[in-house]
Amino acid sequence: MDQKKIGSFIAARRKENGLTQNQLAEKLGITDKAISKWETGKSMPDLSLFHSLCELLHITLNELLLGEFIPDENLKEKSNQALFEVMASWLGKEQWERKTDARAPAVLTLKNVRKIYETERTSTVAVKNVSFEIAKGSFVGIMGASGSGKTTLLNLIATIDKATSGQIEIDGQSIFELSEKDLAAFRREHLGFVFQEYNLLDTLTVYENIALALTIKQTPKESVKQIVLDWAQKLEISEILNKFPYEISGGQRQRCACVRAIVTNPSLILADEPTGALDSRSAKQLLATFAMLSQNYNATVLMVTHDVLSASYCDKILFMQDGEFKAVMERGQEDKQEFFGRILDTMAKMTGGVPYVS
Ligand code: ADP
Ligand code: MG
Q: Rounded CA gap, 162 and 296, in Å?
């Protein structure tokens, strides 16, 4: 992280937004001296100010951290790059150490999982040799550059695609031993999906979309309504239950998809870039929802994401590169703010740091 570059970027953005140092300081409730220190690269804004600062300067968090604008087409790559540097400098070249929570049973176990895509002329090893466990009640993020194999891995776990070799167990059941027919039932019983491409059905209301998930799972008719209403209240969508998906916002749709994923009480909720299409407020709400589900309801969530902020909501982050896990980061007892702070501290230490060699 280049403090000087960030400082000049803040100064430039402040001027472009027609603000003096004084005015910006006032809006943030701090002294103008502090602003001057940031702008000359002597210090960094306090974590608690990041959000307001980004809003006032009309930039994203990733842009602030990089000290430059990120064109839309480079968004993912750039944020991946920043993240990768954080991970690399934090963990150095140490091998990934497997840590599991001894208190909680594993909901998901992967052993030496490989996936090779064969086409006529090429074969791509999308997932190389992945082994890990996810304990019940945890909220785990998978991060990595585009093409690193995240979606492939998630699809293998989701039983949508089949691994070339290795083992995947969900709730102690090896999924490769199941027939196609049993797989469909297994998916219904054990998994919940919040995938962009599995969005709500447009011809059904939100209520009907959620109720359908329960009906498919053969939940007794008389309890369906109460279950839907209870969860709708917890996730704050009670007011929109009778609307159709096209009548509500993207953020609301994703929260409805969450309710649909959780009502059947699945062992594992899988989410692929769930915040990808959301504005920052809706994204935060959705992430807070996942964190709340895992903390209060012992739900287990596995989420693929590419931004640092989303990651700060997880208990644990697995970093993927070229089809393998290269690093792991755990939150332990820290709260979100501290976890995020640890990421930033590491970024600060990186100024002039050594490039990562894998
Ligand atoms: P990510 O989700 O991290 O962006 P993917 O899992 O989509 O990565 O892709 C991992 C690698 O596997 C990429 O090199 C991609 O081109 C390749 N790949 C993904 N799906 C297929 C497919 N159906 N056939 C062939 N290659 C694929
Ligand atoms: Mg993907």
A: 33
